[in-house]
Amino acid sequence: MHDAREYNFDGLVGPSHNYAGLSFGNVASFSNVKSASNPKQAALQGLEKMRALAARGFAQALLPPQDRPNFRLLRGIGFTGSDADVLARAYKEAPVILACAYSASPMWTANAATVSPSADSDDGRVHFTAANLNNKLHRAFEHAQSARTLRAIFHDERRFAVHDALPATPAFGDEGAANHTRLCAKHGAHAVEMFVYGRSEFDANAPAPARYPARQSLEASQAVARLHGLKPARTVYLQQNPDVIDQGVFHNDVIAVGNGNVLFYHEQAFADELAGLDQLRRAMAGVGAELSALRVDSGQVPVADAVKSYLFNSQLLSKADGRMALVIPQECRENQAVARYLAELVASGGPVDELIHFDLRQSMRNGGGPACLRLRVALTDDEANGMHQGVVMTEALYHTLCAWVGKHYRDRLEPSDLADPALALEIHTALEELTTILNLPGLYDL
Question: 3-class DSSP state for residue 216?
């Protein structure tokens, strides 16, 4: 076992942050469709979270936004002419597809990839598999840039392995770390990797949701585990409760979050709660850890309140004193049932003894909370030193990026603005400057 720290790689919100309501099954995203957004405020809210957690001593870094609009997508489906011609025609003939090309969803880096630390893999490297996200058009083209970005940051192949996305077919529908949890005694120790899936492609008798799509397949989860060289005895597959998917729980991280040996979850999270917990306990005993299950009953917090507040889309972070802090959105304090439960949780004497809240309303209105905004990567000191340092959050980088946002981002973006060629140029110019700030030349095909 080697000492390791968990780094949170938050997505830097891009200049195209907009409310297009593209994610059917994501209640918050769908309910704010075609509202005006504030990209500048969204980026600054995210940066403030990164800065505050870094100042508290948590390991914090970022993943840069992706280039928008996706002209390759638009030209690939028949829109021709100059960039301005493509945008004008797409806005007139296919405004939803234009919105897909402008999607801001890469900000939610929990969906960028699944990560297995070196303590878990057969070859002793940190493994990443870019998520294909093929359930939604607006996300299905993210994986190429996600893999490119991860390879730029984790470039040393002696320490890191970045795998391309799984085949883009429903059988391998993969939504990344939003459906993956690592449970262990310490970040540097052997762990149990828990994959949560919504459906099985090849089991016609498996339960499935009726209203909203199940985005993660069992087959995808199993494929990622093979690619990462995980031990079968330390790998657990649990099915998400199809009923909660139909209530707007589109990813497992909307209904459960884990850290260390703690699993914080709603009683309706899993299709078979008791069997799932038994599997986890037996697997964790094999790595010398004991599961601490924090179960939230429906009587304490109904699923509707959990979804509305994003209680479980929180970050559960280990502090230096061995206790844990729960990073929550402001909405948790404004929901009566959730606020009451959280007060009881902190006062209970259990592992969670602190709440840290942030105003992330711009992200929340688009369907993503604190946990959506970050990709967790447990790294030894050697691995952390071997990654690209330009993305590690520091006070100096925070101020530089705030100035960059202030220079390039709009403070209001309407759906009709997506047809404006000036917006595309603004984004292009901003990202060119960002590659210099982060010292990542060639990150984009600009």
Answer: coil
